[in-house]
Amino acid sequence: MIGKKQFNAEAIAKRTLFLFAITGALILFLIVVFIFKEGLPIFNQINPVDFMLGGEWSPSKDVYGALPFIAATILITAGALMIAVPLGISCSVFLAEIAPKWARELVRPAIELLAGIPSIVYGLFALVVIVNTIEVSFDVPTGESILAGSLILAIMILPIIISISQDSIEAVPRAYKEGSYAMGATDTQTITRIVIPTATPGIVAGIILGMGRAIGETMAVVLVLGNVEKIPTNLLDQGEALTSVILLEMGEAAVGSPHYNALFALSMILFMIVFSLSSISNHIIAKRGLRPG
Amino acid sequence: MSMEKIIVRELNLWYGEKQALEDVNMQIRENRVTALIGPSGCGKSTFIRCLNRMNDRIEGVRITGKVEIDGKNIYDKDVDVVALRKRIGMLFQKPNPFPMSIYDNVAYGPRIHGTGDKKKLREIVEDGIRGAALWDEVSDRLETNALDLSGGQQQRLCIARTLAVKPEIILFDEPCSALDPIATGKIEELIHDLKREYTIVIVTHNMQQAARVSDYTGYFLLGEMIEFGKTKKLFENPHKKETEDYITGRFG
Ligand SMILES: Nc1ncnc2c1ncn2[C@@H]1O[C@H](COP(=O)(O)OP(=O)(O)OP(=O)(O)O)[C@@H](O)[C@H]1O
Ligand SMILES: [Mg+2]
To answer: What is the domain range of residue A40?
Structure first.
């Protein structure tokens, strides 16, 4: 009869865990329902395509075109990735494969600390250092710009990319590396032909996670972009990110008004981008394939 | 009578403070199979990894003494370790094919050593796989992932990969310990064939295996080489009491 009792205890534990898991999924579901419920009504007065591609955003005139914000978000994210990806991968290869132990032990906690700094602190740093530097070096009236946003986002996502890439590089089995060295491969050959390709799914997952962070980042970005509702065409142009509009305008939008609905529709866009990014990254991690040499 | 390919003189190795090899002397003959036996932890792997300087990669290792290959000490300052490892292939306890196609696994060595020509590469790959007695089993699926092969096939693939680099010496560190008896039999047969062209050193836990495949055997105990000689002689008529205890199974 002991067997039966144990079985019951296990069944209860299983059910409890299942309940927790379901709760997580349920919360996600509720968030989606809530955002969409508040956001979708805007499409009664403007069709989704015009909303996404419209170049003008003037709540006072009841005109809602999200393109300036989508463009600014894409530009700062792309800029951040262009800086952070090569830098992050090189750093992680260096830390995982080349750096002596003491350097690794020094840098690793520093990087983890960087990842934990509140984003408003990054924003203040960017405002004081990056924005001023851009003003001085490009001789422009204000350093608040797409470039400033890209730079601060690059700094913010660097720790994510480095730590996830480093983990996946360190997870490459020692046996692969030994097999390569035993055939007379150099360090460089082993790193570029065995280590990095094997770690690629993890590295890509890290990049995508960083990208999601960049797209969703609010506090640091709102401080350095200048927040001008105009499509940026130049790195030194000012702009306003999707997150910034929501943050800055939600307070003044009357609940249930079209303006309010439009801001929720912007958050729908954010949600869908981040959701697809994380699905892609999960898919890559699940596949764990190696690209053919 | 064949020549000495490798001569080991007064080899000592320390992992940090701990001495793992003590005054090892050995002569390994060309085109012969030399087996290294001894209880776990006695330094067999450590020793065999000295022969292609794989221990260089471990932090805190200190080595004294000489390992001469064709008369040249491989621990001399002017030795190019990468070129050395190209001459000395190594197989590991657990088959370790790379996570890529069968073809790319075997082509890996020639590619890093500069074979760019597609046709030439294909020939080398095929020769390697045939040399490892694997061709009949994989010729129709060279593009599939090597990790889908069975353990025994993976180990032979690793041999093929090593042959494709055209080494002179092949080191086997317990190549069969993860394999079943049938797969083991195939590897042993292969080793027997390979010695015509290569000098072979094999570490094994399995004394029957040493007796079956090797011409010479060395018995290690606690980092020292206790006895070395013709395999038949060592097994039938060992000089040292320690050796006799070990091979008759009366060991500790
Ligand atoms: N990287 C290392 N750092 C420190 N000590 C080590 C290291 N590798 C091996 N040793 C030690 O050196 C001794 C010899 O180890 P080695 O692996 O050469 O033994 P072995 O004869 O191959 O054993 P087995 O038959 O179990 O494979 C052991 O005491 C082991 O603990
Ligand atoms: Mg061993």
So the answer is: 2-44
